[in-house]
Input
Amino acid sequence: MPGENLSRDEARERAALLSVDEYEVSLDVRSAVGDAQGEGPRTFRSVTTIRFRCNEPGASSFADLVAPSVTAVSLNGRDLDPSEVFDGSRIALEDLAADNELVVDAQCAYSRTGEGLHRFVDPEDGEVYLYTQYEPADSRRVFANFEQPDLKAPFRFEVRAPEEWTVWSNGAGERADGVWRFAETKPISTYITCVVAGPYHYVTDSYERVLEDGTRLEIPLGALCRKGLAPHFDADDVFLITKQGLDFFHDHFDYPYPFGKYDQAFVPEYNLGAMENPGMVTFREEYIFRGKVTRASYEGRANTILHEMAHMWFGDLVTMEWWDDLWLKESFADFMGAFANVGATRFKDAWITFANRRKAWAYRADQLPSTHPITADIRDLEDAKLNFDGITYAKGASALKQLVAYVGQDAFLEGARRYFKRHAYGNTRLGDLLSVLEETSGRDMAAWSRSWLQTAGVNSLTPQVLLSATGTVDELAVVQEAAESHPELRPHRVAVGLYRRTAEGALERYARAEVDVEGPRTVVAELAGAEAPELVLVNDDDLTYCKTRFDDTSLATLREHLGAVTDPLARALCWSALWNMTRDALLPARDFAALVLRFAGRESDIGVLQMLHAWTGSALVHYAAPEWRETGGRLLAEGALRELRDAAPGSEHQLAWARFFASVAAEEADLALLRGLLEGTEKIDGLDVDQELRWTFLAPLAAHGAADEGVLAAELARDDTASGKRHQVRCLASRPSEAVKAQAWAQVVESDALSNALVEATIAGFAQSSQRELLAPYTEKYFAAIERVWAERSIQIGMDVVRGLFPSLRDSRDTLDATDAWLSAHEGAAPALRRLVLEARDDLARALRAQACDGGA
Output
């Protein structure tokens, strides 16, 4: 892995020296089918022609390629010896001319890790499927190139594939003489080129719009998935969201979609949620739902579709110069996903999901030792890979939401329109966007940027209420605090809401004021004289990015009346604040669990309910005092079963409670109920135990030793699909046996035979909270193995292993000391590896503090 790295300084030097005119890429993937090729990785032929200019003739540079072998290299008609110029990741280019032509003929390897050209064999029917995934720098695993975002160029692809296959790429394609040839792209970066090939199920539609100048825009639409998923593929809904999004972005961006067709491929074993390849967006196939799911799942898919569509402008049309400004695409796309969902689709509560789910990701990331400004310091590609995180996505989107409140929506969108027109097909830095926003808003964007984009950490906002002798508000202030490590106190535009109970018992807002919070204490003058509140909610309406705290009266009100908060966004913000207090060891985990048991059954928003289930599970596993875990688990299982039986038959709330019940089931009676639901001897009115729910119920049975290998094999025979195989692998690794754990460890750590999806499934099964003692021997093994794994495996697998196998369930001071000892002894380890270990250490230390709080220490 380290030999494949590229530093920012190297990229800048190369960009200053070279400019690229065009790529021609020819791939032959007929080797994807048939018997294996013998020793070594299965490979395909890749022939690349790059035409580029050098502004210093006679200078030297390099092209990027990660491949098992290179057959031939030609530079300006001169044949070069591959053994002399290719070192496994770079091709040395000496004595460049003003105008150059490089031709590279290589044998590249199919991937099983989701990086480069991934090859998947469907266990259901033996069909082979291919797709590419490159971000940030894996196109060099498929064709020779200059792998950095600011060396854009047009691309022409041609692909030879098996006769019965269809092939797609960024441009429109057609087959002639056994070769698929694709229209030349606009100038784009290497990491958003794409090839998808195989016997995919393909559905088509079209989008039409009359532009303001009277011309007609027609965009061919396509959606594809594996044949085995075709019966479950609701392409009509995918097309509906796609058309609504295209209308929305055309209305707001005033720049027609620039990349011709718009295909969307749902592909197997995908590492990401999706990828914004222009004209050929790729998604993880889990967005095709094999069983009943809640509205939250459909909302999440719509958000992802719109997120990737926003990238067609933010990221593809205008691209950051280097990964420091990754936020220029990801923060905007994350913001636009929710913005467009609310503005264009049936999911009008998407800002609630953003406040409750996306921001939770950001708050966690922003309190890790690896937190960084939204505009990050990205030294190299390993840094870039790790910065696809909650800061870049969700905090960046939160900052943009704050920015919209700060400059106004009209000024914000007009700035975007000018940005697209000024920098179309180019590359930008932070200052390029700020300059257009200053033009449209008249605001000092430099000061806003310094506070929000160029500093790290999250502020806490707490209300202070002083009452007069008559019981009205004498003074209400907002106190702002910051962590010692990141002391920046930012300007916040917030809404402060005052809530009281009505005669009917509803907890409703009766007063609201917007104020600019600056410095350590800000008085909200507009609320002086108001009736005394039972609840003060700072950051009402979720305008800013902060941790919300409560005064004593407000917290006491929530303990008794949280379920009475009638506004769903306000209620979600209260839940989020309480969860942050639990993580910060300010609220005992058992108190949070009690609030969930008391009030979650009244939660109307299904996405919030499912988030509460996830948080409560984490509270029990990581933040509850060890001596209370068994009691807590029993209380949660009893409460979940009660809510499951009380939920409306066939409702999505019933489904959510069924899944949560399975996640906390441990007592014999609970496991017996799950077994009975699987076998049909038990029934809960309205609960349809479909195939996905069957695997959900089997997971705790396997983890508690109540479903053996034979039971799991029988279930796989019932569901002999790629999804079924992943579920079975996870369940097999979760069984409570020393031999099982040893086998799972060997499969992931000592072997590279498993694909990325099966590595992920094995890791998920390996670490079970009910098996802490069984996992004890693996703390020492983990620290002995991770540096070797990082050096030998791809960065994606390295990340999965280092994160997924960290001994977080061995939550004791001894594990913390072992982590510190490794960090002290490996100061020279790869910075990205050290970052992952530091993050895991911080999570463990936080868990220990929360456990002390829960235990009354």
Q: What stands out?
A: The chain has a mean pLDDT of 96.
